[in-house]
TrEMBL record:
Residues 41-127 form the Rhodanese domain. It comes from Wenyingzhuangia gilva. This is Rhodanese-like domain-containing protein. PANTHER family: FAD-DEPENDENT OXIDOREDUCTASE, RHODANESE-RELATED SULFURTRANSFERASES. It comes from the Bacteria. The lineage of its organism: Bacteria, Pseudomonadati, Bacteroidota, Flavobacteriia, Flavobacteriales.
Length: 127
């Protein structure tokens, strides 16, 4: 009976770590505008706008490369990036960039950060 209880405890702890802490990793990669803006000022970072090309053309953060998360070529294009290099992503409001973040983590990106609130929040904080 004690062995079954120990196995059950280990299984519950494993589930907790996998589901709760794994999800915290995704949330921990979201940056506020000030932190995001400071981070992208550093040379040698990858800045990716995951919105549509028309949204990108209507305005974007200087130095950003446009890779539409809903494009059929999204995975192919992100896999051309350096997965070990600091990568900063954003979309309009933060929803699509969360989708992109999950995909990029599955594709083994090591250092990826998402702009909380997206381009709308970034733009409203620029003077």
């Amino acid at each position: 009976m004690r062995m079954i209880l120990n196995i059950l405890i280990v299984a519950i702890l494993g589930w907790f770590v996998f589901n709760f802490i794994g999800n915290q990793k995704l949330k921990g990669n979201r940056l506020e505008v000030a932190d995001f803006n400071e981070a992208i000022q550093v040379k040698n970072v990858q800045l990716i706008d995951v919105r549509t090309p028309s949204e990108f053309k209507s305005g974007h953060i200087k130095g950003a490369k446009n890779i539409d998360v809903f494009s059929s070529e999204f995975k192919q294009k992100i896999n051309e990036l350096d997965k070990s290099k600091a990568t900063y992503i954003y979309c309009r409001s933060g929803q699509r960039s969360q989708k992109a973040l999950k995909i990029m983590l599955k594709e083994d990106f090591e250092n990826i950060h998402d702009l909380k609130g997206g381009y709308m929040t970034w733009k409203s904080n620029q003077n």
